Amino acid sequence: MTFVVTENCVHCKYTDCVEVCPVDAFREGPNFLAIDPTECIDCAVCVPECPAQAIFAEDDVPADQRMFTPLNAELAKAWPSITRRKAAPPDADEWNGRAPKLPLLRRR
Questions:
Q1: Number of domains present in the structure of the chain
Q2: Tens place of pLDDT for every residue, the chain, 108 residues?
Q3: Which of 5, 45, 64, 77 has its CA 20 to 30 A from that of 53?
């Protein structure tokens, strides 16, 4: 099992979770973070650190968010590792909790 970043991360991209990851499993895209399932050790320390509550254990991903499991794996192959916390986008709080945001996810 791995952990999965879901839709609420789009445009929020808080990076609090990145700093606590002991194996550097997070990958950074333009407006979203992904977890590399081959690196994740299922420790769950990232979950309580996410201000957007966008990280779930693979088995607990809400039904309407399950497309994010393969999406995290796909994007993790293309995006660079992020290991240090960065400032959230200036409008992150405005995006937190808004949906749908999947169509706004930028891959490049």
A1: 1
A2: 899 999 999 999 999 999 999 999 999 999 999 999 999 999 999 999 999 999 999 999 999 999 999 999 999 999 999 999 999 999 999 999 999 999 999 999
A3: 77
Question: What HEC string does 19-35 produce?
Answer: HHCCCCCEEECCCCEEE
Tokens (6 digits) for 70: 């393969």
Q: Are 13 and 95 in contact (CB under 8 A)?
A: no
Among 28, 66, 25, 75, which residue's Cα sits nearest to residue 46? 25
DSSP state of 70: H
Could you tell me if residue 99 is inside a domain? Answer: no
